[in-house]
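Entry 14. Structure prediction run on the chain below.
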Amino acid sequence: MPGTTDRLDFGPPRDAGSMRAFGLALLVHVLLIAALTWGVNWKRSDQTVSFEAELWSSVPKEAAPKLVETAPTPPPPPPLPPTPSPPAPPAPAPPEVKMAPPLPDVDIAMEQEKKRKLLQQQKEAEAQKALKAEKAVDKLKAELQAKKEKEKEKAQQAKEQLAKRKAAEEAKKVAAVEAKKQEAKDQEKQKLAAAAAAAERLRQDALKRMMGLAGATGSADAKGSAQKSSGPSAGYPGKVRAAVRPNVVFTDDIAGNPIAEIEVRTTLDGTIISQRLHKSSGNKAWDDAAIKAVIRTGTLPRDVDGRVPTPMILEIRPKD
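Output returned:
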């Protein structure tokens, strides 16, 4: 069975930036934990509070007056003659005792509720701080990711621009080389054309001198190389047409005026010895009629020089 090493050989390549990303994530989590710890400790106070309370009855009761000791009554004096006795002084009033008002149970409950609300507010503030710290971490991560994407995009754009510049420079170089090659070819063609024209002029001059010496009969502007002109005269095609036309027998309707080309070979006296269809007119009936007309003619007329050109190609139309 293949081992772990074999499986890893076919696995995707490791990301080169994974260690840096892991280090950044670890640093951000450490900062978050430190911020949460500081936020919890700086508002923490000693919650150990000692309370002193006196228990009183729920219904206020007034205390009894304190016992006040009075001086003992002296023994009666001996009887005296009756005299009016002064009125007895009034008894001193008992001292007023001020009592501390009891702390109602409602105040204790309100104090406890106030402390509970204070603790709840502290907890909510700490939770909000933790949430803000988490949002700050997320924002920092998003900014880092966006910055990384922008840098990657800029690098890609720079790479593409560099490739475009290189391609443009390479294209310019190739175009310059091709232009130089084409220019060299054009110059070479011009040189060859000039050399060919010069050689042709020399050849024509030599040919004219040779033909003049050999007794040529052509005009001064003639371009041929033979001593005498040959071929049918200008009026010979009319003679041939006048000889063949009466022998054409064709009564079918035909569209247009197609041409049937017939190759004819004759003897020296103009007797037709062979004929064949050189180029069809596209209508078989007309091709057959043209060949039969040549056969009926039998002999072609002589030219002004007494000869009959052979072979020759006759162009025959149905409407001529």
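The beta strands are 260-266, 272-279, 312-316.
Filed with the rest of this week's runs.
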